[in-house]
Amino acid sequence: MNKAEFIDAVAAKAGLSKKDAKGAVDAVLDTITETLVKKESVSFIGFGTFTTADRAARTAKVPGTDKTVEVPATTVAKFKVGKALKEAVAK
């Protein structure tokens, strides 16, 4: 499912116009992004938690060659699945 299909599904389920559903979905995604940029977490009980993690700089080997490259330190987004979502998917 891509973003457009997701917006269509939200519109149908919530009884909203596609324009209103797009605005709501964009607002949710923007808010999650802004919160993660501040290195704070976003938690939806039962669904999951969005967090950030710092990855240290490292040396990586290029597959198939003996060449190595330096990978700089970075911050990555992470998602930990909540219990209710995990159980719903496992069925």
Structure explained in plain terms:
- It is a single chain.
- By secondary structure, the protein is of the alpha+beta class.
- It has one domain: HU Protein, Chain A (Irregular).
- It is built from three helices and five strands; from the N terminus they run H-H-E-E-E-E-E-H.
- The strands form two sheets. A three-stranded antiparallel β-sheet has the order 1-2-5. A two-stranded antiparallel sheet has the order 3-4.
- The model has no long low-confidence stretch (mean pLDDT 96).
- InterPro entries: Hist_DNA-bd, IHF-like_DNA-bd_dom_sf.
- Belongs to the bacterial histone-like protein family.
- Keywords: DNA condensation, DNA-binding.
- This is DNA-binding protein HU.
- One of its GO terms (biological process) is chromosome condensation.
